[in-house]
């Protein structure tokens, strides 16, 4: 194979290739070695699948349904390019008896559309909206592997890790946020052996690039739309205005977060109590900060008596809160970039930060989703979160997870010098400061 990303070279016999792959798959699932000529991208995916505890006779599970799925899809960034996907791929899928599928960054299928008879066949293996097709859930498959490796992938027949998926062939390409580069999900075409042609790989890649270009060209918020304040996971918030982002100081970040949550405004006394733990801070100090903030925002943005913003400003923390309250847990977890203004000691910000982190964390533990728990556990704010690691070990008892849990529990049981710190309803290990 001259190109490891192409499943079947032109002129190759698909039937013979299937026979070779089935023997290789049987060898791997019985003795753990990958014989030639399995492509390296597939061999690496099989190994990741095995490490995640996926079995060759498993099946996908539906994790989002009905209202939860509708709410999640409505807020997902790829909803804005679904008309483009349908325009570019809909007729191809219907005419070729294929399926157009779109998944999120966790491999969850959001949309599955196409030929009715093909959809009915796909339903029998839970290739349906709301089902999780990540590598860690169902092993090697085009949409799940594309988001895992961050590049276009073809998966042909017995290259699929789960046997019931092996009659299918698929090609998928990740779609990135054009501003941040973050993987938003993947667009996939699924059907028969004909999709193993190199053209299908180039096709989904071109569609993904078109979607990224379309996202980049979408109009910024108009005068009556909310401006976005990014305050999660950063000590200095960023406000996106028509002229570009404004980087705020730490104190101005705190003020803007609070005012964005109180469109009716706050008095000077209310702001002072929310911002300062030290009651000796004079009103002059706060007024000086507000004068500087008004200068930073530009004319007309900050009014007084009471202090309030004249334009609607929505913080990313509020977006996560709203998703969590709506039960769209995956969307809430994806939007959570870290604790709210983590360096802030302002009393009101501390309360908001702990309430948001605690609520999301509690929901993750209760939901038992291995991918969401793993994302939290491997993030800087979750690496010492004992309860989350215990929850993760219960649903994904891999060697590395069990080892990390054992290390945390050993630290918890250690004598003086190390102990337990509690915050946001969580149990974290507190290491001594240098």
UniProtKB/TrEMBL annotation:
A matching Pfam family: GAF
One Gene Ontology term from the biological process aspect of the record: phosphorelay signal transduction system
GO molecular function: DNA binding
Keywords attached to this entry: DNA-binding
OmpR/PhoB-type domain boundaries: 243-309
UniProt xrefs under InterPro entries: GAF, GAF-like_dom_sf, OmpR/PhoB-type_DNA-bd
UniProt protein name: GAF domain-containing protein
Naturally occurring in which organism (per UniProt): Streptomyces actinomycinicus
Taxonomic lineage from the root: Bacteria, Bacillati, Actinomycetota, Actinomycetes, Kitasatosporales
């Amino acid at each position: 194979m001259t190109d490891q990303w192409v499943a079947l070279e032109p002129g190759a016999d698909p039937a013979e290739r299937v026979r070779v792959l089935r023997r290789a798959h049987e060898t791997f699932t019985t003795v753990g070695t990958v014989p030639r000529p399995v492509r390296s991208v597939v061999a690496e995916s099989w190994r990741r699948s095995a490490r995640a505890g996926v079995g060759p006779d498993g099946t996908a599970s539906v994790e989002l349904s009905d209202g939860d799925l509708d709410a999640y899809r409505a807020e997902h960034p790829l909803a804005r390019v679904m008309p483009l996907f349908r325009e570019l791929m809909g007729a191809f899928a219907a005419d070729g008896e294929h399926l157009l599928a779109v998944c999120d960054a966790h491999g969850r299928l959001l949309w599955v559309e196409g030929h009715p008879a093909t959809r009915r066949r796909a339903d029998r293996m839970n290739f349906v909206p709301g089902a999780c097709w990540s590598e860690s859930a169902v092993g090697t498959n085009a949409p799940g592997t594309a988001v895992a490796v961050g590049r276009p992938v073809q998966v042909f027949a017995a290259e699929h890790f789960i046997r019931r998926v092996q009659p299918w062939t698929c090609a998928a390409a990740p779609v990135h946020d054009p501003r941040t580069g973050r993987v938003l999900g993947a667009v996939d075409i699924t059907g028969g052996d004909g999709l193993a042609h190199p053209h299908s790989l180039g096709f989904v890649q071109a569609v993904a690039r078109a979607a990224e270009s379309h996202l980049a060209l979408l109009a910024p918020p108009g005068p009556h739309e909310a401006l976005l304040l990014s305050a999660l996971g950063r000590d200095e918030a960023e406000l996106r205005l028509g002229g570009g982002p404004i980087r705020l100081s730490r104190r101005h970040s705190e003020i803007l977060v609070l005012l964005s949550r109180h469109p009716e405004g706050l008095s000077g006394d209310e702001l002072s109590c929310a911002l300062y733990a030290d009651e000796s801070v004079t009103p002059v100090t706060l007024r000086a900060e507000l004068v500087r903030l008004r200068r930073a925002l530009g004319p007309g943005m900050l009014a007084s008596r009471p202090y309030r913003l004249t334009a609607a400003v929505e913080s990313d923390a509020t977006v996560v809160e709203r998703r969590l309250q709506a039960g769209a847990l995956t969307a809430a977890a994806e939007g959570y970039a870290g604790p709210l203004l983590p360096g802030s000691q302002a009393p009101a910000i501390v309360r908001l930060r702990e309430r948001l982190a605690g609520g999301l964390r509690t929901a993750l533990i209760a939901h038992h989703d291995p991918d969401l728990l793993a994302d939290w556990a491997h993030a800087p704010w979750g690496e010492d979160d004992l309860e989350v690691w215990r929850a993760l070990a219960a649903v994904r008892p891999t060697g590395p997870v069990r080892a990390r849990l054992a290390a945390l529990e050993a630290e918890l049981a250690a004598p003086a010098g190390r102990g337990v710190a509690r915050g946001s309803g969580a149990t974290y290990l507190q290491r001594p400061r240098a």
